Amino acid sequence: MMFESFAKAHSVMLWSTFGIALVMGAVVNKTNFCTMGAVSDAVNMGDWGRMRAWLFAIAVALTGVVALEHFGVLNAGGSYPPYRSGQLIWSENLLGGFLFGIGMTLASGCANKTLIRIGGGNLKSLVVLLAVGVVAYFMVNPFPGSDKTLYSVLFYSWMHPMAISLSGNQDLGSMVYPANPVAARVWIGSIIALGLFYFVFKSKDFRGNRDNILGGFVVGLCVLAAWFVTSNIVINSGGDHYSLHSFAQQWDFLADSPAGKPADVGPLAAQSFTFVNPMGQTLGYITERFSSAYLTFGIMSVFGVVLGSFLWSVVRGGFRFEWFASVGDFFRHLSGGLLMGFGGVLGMGCTIGQGITGVSTLAAGSIMTFVAIIFGSALTMKVQYYKMVYEDANLGKVLVTSLVDMRLLPSSLRQLEAI
Question: Which of 103, 119, 161, 215 could form a disulfide with 306 if both were Cys (CB 3.0 to 4.6 A apart)?
Fold first, then answer.
């Protein structure tokens, strides 16, 4: 897609993002595609239907990314955020994913589900959105009158030294066969995707559930579509071709005036859906009085998902306001939102941002975050269940018993009767 001006190219990118996100919001609402629900169904009921829908979305996105990269029409290498960075900060991936998994369980849904519920009239999710947004914003932006961020104050000094500097990128293709990572990604991605497709469709129940199939397919396709659009916006300036990101980096040399210059060039790189950092960007956009310089892919994706969910709720007659059942319910959702904010930025994404978008790049850090999210959520559900049944049991006994149930500790250490 070739354009003669930055303004036109940027506008097409933003509105294309909005349109794709609108479809995602409507379909996720319609099909009840929910990653937290997927973990809950598997842990509490042994029902893997929605988990298979999540894995199906991963397989669709992964297949598309490795294929389109092979043909040179998609660029996930210099993405925003940098999934394939040569610096693997594994501690942030694991801790961030774990915190996010706990948070999404306490908040009754991941970042994407929070937006879906807002579109359906759930006012509790507005509180979650605000909590996520504030934390996400100050994790990467300094406090007023300071050069310190939440990340620099709480995490940088002890987590960054644990980073592993790789000789190349951290995607599986680059690590397995650095001489030709594109070809390696095709083989590795194809094997993983085929394995996922087999696991997903070997279930008769899944094959018979149209909503799970539709939800997984459309979410995966939306992630792929966003990758494609943001990789193929090109500006023709004096016969030379530039991406949005490269044009903005050379703005003073290429543009006629400062008018229309984005506040940050990072969010102009190739990217796809993630929702924690964009919630922080949305807060920044509001505090900057809706200045177009601060309008990003992420913000348009937030608005698009909410509106898509809202439209589907209205069409189906499912829109209704919902508020907290108790003070305890309020603080549970608030704490969940705060943890999602910390975890989503640390782990560089959410169940969509890392669990689908990041994994589609075959980044090692994304896979770590994805596993940590599931573990954090599953463990939290186990702990909540045991605390509900054994109200007087201390947290230590509940935690050990939950880990025994998850086969991470020997059964001889069980502290409470199995439920």
Answer: 119
What phi, psi does 39 have (nearest 5°)? -65, -45
**To which residue do tokens 């349109």 refer?**
19
Which pLDDT tens digit goes with each residue over 120-136? 999 999 999 999 999 99
**193: CB partners within 8 A, 6+ apart:** 59, 62, 63, 66
The verdict on residue 350 lying in a domain is: yes
Burial of 185: CB neighbours in 10 Å, binned 0-12, 13-18, 19+? buried
pLDDT category of residue 174 using cuts at 50, 70 and 90: very high
| Whole-number Å distance between alpha carbons of 67 and 278 | 27
DSSP string, 338-372: HHHHHHHHHTT--TTIIIIIIGGGTBHHHHHHHHH
Residue 116 CA to residue 329 CA, distance in Å, equals 19
132 with 302: CB under 8 angstroms?
Answer: no
**Overall domain count for the chain:** 1
Write out the residue range of the structural domain in which residue 60 sits.
Answer: 2-378
In Å, what is the CA distance from 374 to each residue of 39, 318, 355, 370, 416? 7, 29, 10, 7, 23
The answer to whether residue 170 sits within a structural domain is yes
pLDDT digits (tens, 9 = 90+) for 329-338: 999 999 999 9
Local confidence band at 391 (pLDDT 50, 70, 90 cut-offs): confident
| Structural domain includes residue 72 | yes
Supply the pLDDT for residue 1: 87
Residue 317, classed as helix, strand or coil, is: coil
Q: Is 403 inside a domain boundary?
A: no
- Packing angle, helices 90-106 and 364-389, rounded to 10: 40
392 — pLDDT class (breaks 50, 70, 90): confident
Report the distance separating Cα 272 and Cα 282, nearest Å.
Answer: 16
Q: What per-residue confidence (pLDDT) applies to 5? A: 92
Cα end-to-end span (Å), the chain: 57
Alpha carbon 267 to its chain centroid, in Å, reads: 15
